[in-house]
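Exercise 7. Predict the joint structure of the components listed below.
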Amino acid sequence: MKIISEEEVLKNYSMKQCIEDVERAFMLSKRSEIVVPFRTILHQGDDGAHTLYMPSYVPEINYSAVKIASIFPGNEKYYIPRIQSTIVLSESKTGQHVANIAASALTMLRTGAISGVATKHMAREDAKTLSVIGCGVQSYGQILAIMEVRELEKIYLYNRTKNKALDLKEKVMNHYPDWSGDIQIVDDVNEAVSKADILVSSTSANTPVFSGKYIKAGTHINAIGSCEPIKQEYDVETLKKASKVVVDTLEGAKGEAGGLVIPDEKGEWSFENIYSELADIVVGEKAGRETDEEITLMDSVGVGFLDTVCAASIYESFFIKRH
Amino acid sequence: MKIISEEEVLKNYSMKQCIEDVERAFMLSKRSEIVVPFRTILHQGDDGAHTLYMPSYVPEINYSAVKIASIFPGNEKYYIPRIQSTIVLSESKTGQHVANIAASALTMLRTGAISGVATKHMAREDAKTLSVIGCGVQSYGQILAIMEVRELEKIYLYNRTKNKALDLKEKVMNHYPDWSGDIQIVDDVNEAVSKADILVSSTSANTPVFSGKYIKAGTHINAIGSCEPIKQEYDVETLKKASKVVVDTLEGAKGEAGGLVIPDEKGEWSFENIYSELADIVVGEKAGRETDEEITLMDSVGVGFLDTVCAASIYESFFIKRH
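Solution:
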């Protein structure tokens, strides 16, 4: 059993590789069977603490894995992260359990990579400006991924508490010491929205935090926050302005994407308007962006088999030298 | 994340401690809530290979754990064990994943300890002779456990292929260099049965391997093999001769104990005749052995929360010095 720490994941696994892996995983999901059993929820205590067990099996790469994620809302008082996750990777020719991989960095990277893949296919080729609404840990992965697929010149960061935006700015600047672009913190969320060629919405908001009316023509939106059916991060106007609404998986979106579920339930919008799953665009069954003016939206709630594919890639990176 | 290998489990975790832990776990299961969600089965390949994910949560000790067991029947051709298991232990105050514990030795020890607890309460105090039918890896744990609770003078071993019995004899003799008793290999299974004060049946047989008519008065039987509803390791006569039939959990027995399920379905015996769960005897709600003459039987298929309690104990043994 190989133990792989957060530090080792960050050192051995690049966003470039992760985007390749996620794109490949979506491709596999279209051409062969992937097994994703229902996840198991174990409730612990009265404050909503729970642990999720999320197994999945990707026959074509010969690995299965289970992600174990504990979500403990009360952890802030102990200065311990609210979400703690780890992955056990098993080789599926003989069932050997080959690795235990700390999964916070992995989750951040693969969540970023989903947006990276979506942005690659759906944002304008000449997109230069990224606006990020919400500056938590996931937003760092979003920026790394989008920097990988577009030549950005400007990043706008908005966060309710400004210090988190400043921290994120510093982290990104340290990661790209040679980058010629710059990062600006903004106080007005809609100012950030109005300037975006690419917009990332990554908050845990219950109700929309920005107004769709400020989104300009040609913007691509990655909405990755609020992954609960009762949380609506972006408004219906945003949804209606988008000529293409894409999800990572339709099943996941119907269960967890509040930005879609709530308008669908209210009759303001319908799941029938979904353009496609992201995998359909990856394999070329559906077109990505077709005009410079269209507004596109990708809502991601994550999908378990990506964890298995990324975990296998991280494990193999210790044995196989890559380009 | 602390990684604990098979070798470290065997070095740090005694059968004596394991029996204490299993007895305590049964006690906890009677006086407080233990959460055992349905296990998840992930089928892999055409030869029956599958992986089981078995989470459980024991609030009173503040730990949850998931046992991940891959069962790959085709492994023999690679000289790899058919069953490979590992446990991820999580502390349940903050959800931190604290240990990854190799679980083959743990399973062997805790399966032994169940029989140890049953034997302690149900065998005659003056039991001197143990007969073991089937000499696979679990039987070693059975002997360690029973040696812990009774002063044995003689052990009879029976196995279809004699070499496995010889191997087990050697292993046990090495473990107890100062033991004054002796171990004899027998060729006739019913000879072993007829000599037993305590009988362990630990085979993967589909149909009964010994005849109940050879069981003498006063024998206690631990039946721990054939944990599938279609496998019947002991015959109906054995069952009917027992004045007390005890199971580790009724739910588990009804699902997996073929020795009980098959006679119940055929109308030859009924689950209504179950005397109690083992936990009822541990806490004193039900009597264990009451006369020197009665024949008692404990059928165990294992139960997930014991793994969590034992895993927690193993983990803590690295930090807490015990007597």
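Discussion. Chain A touches chain B at residues 1, 3, 5, 35, 37-38, 40-45, 49, 51, 53, 55, 57, 59, 64, 66, 68, 70-72, 74-75, 78, 80, 84-86, 88, 90, 92, 94-97, 100, 102 (CB under 8 Å).
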